[in-house]
Design goal:
single chain; alpha+beta; Nuclear Transport Factor 2, Chain: A; five-stranded antiparallel β-sheet; elongated
């Protein structure tokens, strides 16, 4: 009986920790997308140069805003991102509409835990 309690408690603690870390990853992924949408920002605290170049929509979207307007953007991360120790994969819905042009895309981020925070190291934007 005591062994079952320890096993169930360990499983519950693991699930709880997994969900808490997943929530932290979701928040970090939203911050990464916000930094990726901004022009003239210090994005290196959140992602690599390659990720920023793929993520920033200035080359992909005509008439993209010069200054970041939060009202034109919305982000929704997956409920529970896939993560294992110091690496994570998360899909974020990225919606942009400025009245003239816009996009609605899934952004797949690969993130690594570096220096106490999640850093995007790879991005995929399916067509």
């Amino acid at each position: 009986m005591k062994k079952k309690v320890i096993i169930y408690s360990s499983i519950a603690a693991f699930i709880f920790a997994y969900v808490i870390v997943g929530s932290n990853i979701n928040e970090a992924s939203k911050k990464i997308l916000v930094a990726g949408m901004k022009s003239n920002t210090d994005y290196r605290a959140f992602m690599t140069d390659e990720v920023y170049d793929k993520l920033h929509p200035a080359d992909r979207v005509s008439r993209y805003e010069i200054e970041y307007m939060p009202d034109n953007h919305s982000y929704k991360a997956s409920l529970v991102p896939l993560h294992f120790f110091f690496i994570a994969h998360v899909t974020v819905k990225n919606h942009y509409d400025n009245g003239f042009s816009g996009f609605n895309e899934d952004v797949i981020l690969t993130m690594k835990w570096k220096k106490g925070k999640w850093i995007a190291t790879c991005v995929g934007i399916p067509a």
